[in-house]
Amino acid sequence: MNNILNYFSNEGRNQKGYFYRLIWIGCMSAFIPVILIGGLYYYFATTSLKDQIKRDSEASLVLFKERVESILQSIELESHQLASNPIIRDSFSTPQFSQNISAQLDLLQQLKLSKLNNNIIEEVYYYNTVDNFVLSNEYGYISKEAFKYQRDIEKIIEENQSTAWMRLPIASKKGYISLARKLPILDSGKPKGLLVILVKEKVFLDYFPSNNQQISFILDHQNKGLFLDNKTLSSIKNTHESAFNRIIDENSNSGVFYDVDKNQQRTLYIYNGRSTLGRVYISLVPESAITEELSLFRWMIFSSAFVILCIGMLFTIIYARRAYNPIKQLVDFSQSLGEMDISSNLKNEITIIQDSIQNLSKEKQKLRKYKEEIEPTLREWFFQQILEGKYVIDHFLYKKCKEYNIPIQSQYVVIAINGVNLMTEDNAENDDKHVSLLVVKSILNELFQIDPSLEAVDINTIQDNVAVIFRYKEDMSSEEIKDKLYNTSLLITDSLQKRLFSDFSIGVGRIYQDIKYICISFEEALLALQYRIYKDSDTVLFIEDVEQSKNKGMFFYPRDLDARIVESLKVGDLDLAQLTLHDFSKSTSLFKSYNSTLQCFYLLLSSIIFSLEKQGQSIKDIFEPDLFNQLKSLKTLDEINKWFIEYLFPFYESFSEETETSSGTLAVKQICQYINENIAKDITLTQCAELVNLTPSYLSRLFKKEVGMNFREYVLIRKVEKAKSLCLQTDVRTSEIAEAVGYSERNLTRLFVKYVDMTISQYRNSNR
User: Fold this and answer.
1) DSSP string covering 276-306
2) Do residues 641 and 585 make contact, with C-beta atoms less than 8 angstroms apart?
3) Per-residue model confidence as pLDDT tens digits over 367-414
4) Weakest mean pLDDT among 197-201, 614-618, 734-738
5) Strand partners, 508
6) What is the pTM of this model?
7) Residue 766 CA, distance from chain mean position
8) What distance lies between CA 178 and its chain's CA centroid?
9) Rounded to whole angstroms, how far apart are CA atoms 623 and 295?
10) Distances from the Cα of 576 to the Cαs of 341, 641, 697, in angstroms?
């Protein structure tokens, strides 16, 4: 005791000297780590930020390329299809085409359709070098000399390119960029005509990166700027000559590198490789711009380090004062724990120490009692950590088991409980699911308290399921444990169904001999629950049983049923689609695999989406309801079939009706034109369906809706009309008329009598 008193006495006499030395040591211990850590953090943070700016610039260029290239290629495709049109191709071989008003009107109609098919196109015009005239949407027929884009036409002819995007003298002043194509396409000689499409430059410029510090532009296959005038492009090339030569000579399609320009400024160059017509997309980001973005970040780090340093020094001074008044510190701490007023009993240091130790002893007893109260909650949290697989080091796991008196070596198994209707609704709120899980957990706690023989050691809510951990004696066989688990699971589902009026399913994992494998058993229980997709009538699913049956399934996809469902939807036969869907479900359930069965339905959904897209629907509109996620959330075959019948099939039907009112009319007009131009041939529905890329059954229904009669009847009437016209306008024989409409004389006479109610000779005599 004398030694203790001497210690406190010496500390009091030397307190002032120690106090100043402790402040100095504390300040240095705060200052040096802050400077070192702040410097390292600044280095790594700025390096990471530079890499992030580099990645962002690269991603910005890729996005810019994808958007602009998509527009350019759509215009180029439209130009190629228009240039390949027989009307334009025949305009160079048709005698006196400049005086053939009918042919010119057909050509103008094609130009108008091309403009309407692509809302980005502002103007399309055709120039014929042989007859020196222009056909355009705005002016119709007009001579070259009177056409406002005369200088543009001359500029295109001077160029040696057959197809190219150009900034033409007149069009560029009006804000247009032009796609010029020399005609005909496959003729390498002197061009006989031109096809020019005008597009507003603003449509493309809106997609350029909006960052003022990033310069982006496009080079064509001749390394000319696509949206830059020659003066601006020449200035950029002169400044960045070495980098330009490297990009042009590179074999790779894309790249990112730093280089120094002629102004000795270090610059980040990003390029993305050559596209269909040899275009290269390039971005330049000066390093000074990157450094400027880092300046604010640099000051933030320095300011933070300074503030932390000041706080550290302040706390050092405060705690230095307290550290060298040990008796007062002990008294204050004891008073904060106990209710007695030690200061009223102060006599000497011994009394103070005794009173403080008594208070600490009381607090220790309170702490022990509190630990006993919260131990069940801690055990539950511990088991939850094991279920989630967070104890990866055996040493920590076994230490906790010893602390909570949990056997390490025993027979452990986990079951997962899931409510079919209670907890798996897509539109259920998270709070509602959480409450439902707690209700299930409460019922199970009550059940296991009533019957301790069930041997449940923990109940946890995890991953929208309730997990129950069972521990069985080591002398029990696997078959005995499985029988007991099955009976316990039936008891659980029966109790939950009576209390909550909802169906429940239970997945059972494998039995393991070590507590660290509980997480694997839980994962297997969740996997067993997935097999409800084809075992929806089974309440209890053992992972061992479902995986054994898995290998007995078939190994082919029912493609014929897939095609039959899509075909039924195309013709609007929803009843047949529903019946075929049930056959499809039966076939896929033979896989005996959750993933395989679900992927079969993914393929079916993909086929239906592809059918809609093939009809001309926007893929963006089709994907708007997030169909694949909806399908993924379904757990059983009944739920999947119900979703297809009640949601997806009507969804398809509504889209198909919209398609018929738009693209259907154009397709039927194209078929009618083909019939009139080929009246002498044997025209079939299948042949016409292939012409417009539709199925025969769908075209037949569409034709009847648009024309008011079926396809065959329309063909017969057109042949009769052609025969009537030949009767009145010529003196050819009946056999020649029959040959002109693709029939024998006998069949034509029979057809004529059916529709005109007289023979060909009678009709000719009565109308002359």
Assistant:
1) TT--EEEEEEEHHHHHHHHHHHHHHHHHHHH
2) yes
3) 666 555 565 677 777 877 777 777 656 677 788 788 777 888 888 999
4) 614-618
5) 415, 542
6) 0.38
7) 71
8) 34
9) 43
10) 89, 14, 15
